[in-house]
Write a structure and sequence with these properties.
This protein has 392 residues and is α/β, with parallel strands linked by helices. The chain contains 14 helices and 17 strands.
């Protein structure tokens, strides 16, 4: 995989730069700037190299139609302030753009194409659309690891038409994930949360032979609590997962991997309720499991204490309500504590987990924070990502 940082002559080269600027909005304002902050290094690098930069990104799911709600305009304005450079947003039809017209005004070193998902051809991985995008530039750079599991025109198909390179962030992301997959320092622990166990079954089964501990928390743990014969009240649970859970425990028996799940929980009658600690045997029919309990927290902290590498994807509970945030907060604090004396290598992934550690203002205390959700999990699962395959 060629990295853009190894290219010597980028002076005046037109660079098509694929980024993931799909940031969350609340009341029309950007509510988390993590993804914008992460792409500043590649822009600084290309600006210093005197390249002309054409940025491709998307926001939301406009389903192949122009929808101003999903315009990249607020992101352009935010980025302009960060890098203190003028950015031009091209909102005209991409098919009318020509390479020679893009940088006629020498004041413009960076242009943004409007939301690439306004074109249905993008998600269809359309070859002629990718070819037209490629005609606008001299080379292509993918610095959107979090989109690289998508077979989309601006991520995989485009690499067939232009010299293609990995960006700085993409390489950093892969290096961090290699440290928890191929360059493992044991004992290694994976804490995995979220609501759906079926979407993560491949990941869990793939990691069992490699990891010493897999800790299952969040909504997906309810399937295990139920499988073990406990009432889970009206907690979220995925249907028809008994075989999946059975496979997890059977696979772990064949390898020296300990699978842990909550031994006590915090419940409420609804997501806005106060929390109440309960043993698994005491859960009532109108209870909702919304966090892990104090005994489980201590068990997890002890496992982290005895780990050298930790991978965390998915919070332990419904942290949006502070009454159910303690489990996630305690996990974060224990990893941070170990990080401070450099006795652990920690990788965090997924939007909710990143939102949590940003809320706690401790993101900088982890070795690597990945905003990628799906791509992060698929890479760990051992799948070949279309965006990475295109760069090889």
């Amino acid at each position: 995989m060629n990295n853009i940082k190894d290219q010597e002559n980028l002076n005046q080269k037109k660079v098509l730069l694929r980024l993931d600027l799909n940031v969350p909005f609340k009341d029309g304002l950007i509510s988390d700037e993590t993804r914008i902050n992460k792409i500043v290094p590649i822009l600084d690098f290309l600006i210093k190299k005197k390249s002309n930069i054409i940025i491709i990104s998307h926001v939301g799911r406009p389903k192949g139609k122009v929808n101003k709600t999903y315009s990249l305009k607020p992101i352009c304005e935010n980025l302009e302030k960060k890098i203190k450079k003028k950015i031009k947003l091209l909102d005209n039809d991409i098919y009318t753009l020509k390479k020679e017209d893009l940088f006629k005004n020498t004041d413009n070193q960076i242009v943004f194409l409007e939301n690439i998902r306004f074109y249905k051809e993008e998600e269809k991985n359309d070859a002629s659309f990718a070819k037209h995008l490629a005609s606008l530039a001299d080379l292509y750079v993918n610095d959107a690891f979090s989109c690289s599991h998508r077979s989309h025109a601006s991520i995989s198909k485009i690499t067939e038409f232009l010299p293609s390179f990995a960006g700085l962030q993409l390489e950093t992301e892969i290096d961090a994930l290699k440290k928890v997959t191929t360059e493992i320092k044991k004992p290694i622990t994976c804490i995995i949360g979220g609501s759906k166990i079926s979407t993560k079954i491949g990941l869990i089964k793939n990691l069992i032979p490699k990891f010493d501990n897999i800790i299952i928390v969040g909504g997906m743990a309810n399937n295990i609590i139920s499988y073990k014969g406990n009432n889970i009240g009206k907690s979220i649970k995925e249907r028809d997962c008994e075989t999946t859970v059975k496979e997890i425990f059977e696979t772990s028996k064949n390898h020296s991997c300990q699978v842990s799940f909550p031994i006590d929980v915090l419940v409420g009658k609804n997501i806005d309720d106060k929390s109440k600690v309960k043993e698994l045997s005491d859960i009532e029919n109108d209870d909702m499991i919304l966090d892990i309990g104090p005994k489980t927290i201590e068990k997890i902290k002890n496992i982290i204490e005895n780990s050298t590498t930790v991978l965390w994807n998915g919070p332990a509970g419904y942290f949006e309500n502070p009454n159910f945030a303690r489990g996630s907060h305690e996990i974060a604090k224990q990893i941070v504590k170990k990080n401070k004396d450099s006795s652990i290598y920690s990788v965090i992934g997924g939007g909710d987990t990143v939102a949590l550690i940003n809320q706690m203002n401790v993101a900088q205390e982890f070795n690597f924070v990945s905003t990628a959700g799906g791509a992060f999990l698929e890479y760990l699962e051992g799948k070949e990502l279309p965006g990475i395959k295109g760069l090889n």
